[in-house]
Amino acid sequence: MAAEPAYRRILLKLSGEALMGDTDYGIDPPVIARLAREVREVSRAGVQVGVVIGGGNIFRGAGLASAGMDRVAADHMGMLATVMNALAMQDALERLGTYARVLSAIRINEVCEDYIRRRAVRHLEKGRICLFAAGTGNPFFTTDTAAALRAVEVGAQLLLKATKVDGVYSADPNKDRDATRIAHLSYDRILVEKLGVMDATAIALLRDNRLPLRVYDMNSPGHLHRIAVEGDRSIGTTVDNEGVAA
Asked: Is residue 2 part of a domain?
């Protein structure tokens, strides 16, 4: 009899840029296929999986606003970009024979479902992968905040942030050879030192609801399974209320 997974329910946060691979724009099919396979493996092991994907590979609201576009209009464009990415991930998962549902915070019923918390929880309980799109449905909020919010709402036990580095470092590892990975730290330290792991709203929401965060390298095959199913705590950086304070 297979052992129970380390976590019953998780939420995975992917940046839109993660889907680009080595391209300059859009979605790299081999990359999204690999990510879909990793998510499917975790789901098949008995972990209920929710996913929030950013839209930076298509449109980034803050970037458009800094170039002079109205911030609200720019953020709405960014929300639509996340819907596109979620639909692409849904397609990749379904081609692997895995049930997936896209739930959008803005109404776009012709292509996906509206986000309703109880419906999302029911999908998760049935083993379907839930792809939460359109952020929070409001301008001025990042997909980091949307990921924290959805994780708390659906009762996830862990929020995972997939990045291009294997955790949080004392300095930028691409610029500083002496930078060291921090294995465990507190939400308060992130806020005080402005470490930039997630935006402050997301960090405060996770801290206040005592929901742990794991930052890990999405380009390391098998790491998602080792964290979510096997409970391996040696991977990446764990952030919680008990971590090393500032």
From this structure: no
State the amino acid at position 123 in one-letter form: H
Report the number of secondary-structure helices (H) and strands (E) in the chain. Answer: 8, 11
The pair of three-digit structure tokens given for residue 33, joined into one six-digit string: 């296929």
Distance CA 197, CA 135 (A): 18
Output the pTM of the full model. 0.93
How far is CA 79 from each of CA 70, 178, 198, rounded to the nearest angstrom? 14, 38, 18
**Domain span including residue 203:** 9-240
Neighbours of 107 (CB within 10 A): 12
∠ CA 52-58-62, nearest 5°, is 80
Helix axes 143-153, 117-125, angle to 10 degrees: 70
Tokens matching residue 183:
């294995």
Provide the percentage of residues in the chain whose pLDDT is more than 70: 98
* Over residues 40-51, mean pLDDT: 98
Per-residue tokens: 240 = 């919680």
Q: Are strands 168-169 and 181-182 parallel, antiparallel or unpaired?
A: antiparallel
Report how far apart, in Å, the C-alpha atoms of 181 and of each of 86, 219, 236 are. Answer: 31, 17, 8
Residue 246 resides in a domain? no
CATH of the domain at 42: 3.40.1160.10
> How many domains does the structure of the chain reveal?
1
Compute the distance between CA of residue 191 and CA of residue 34 in angstroms, rounded to an integer.
Answer: 33
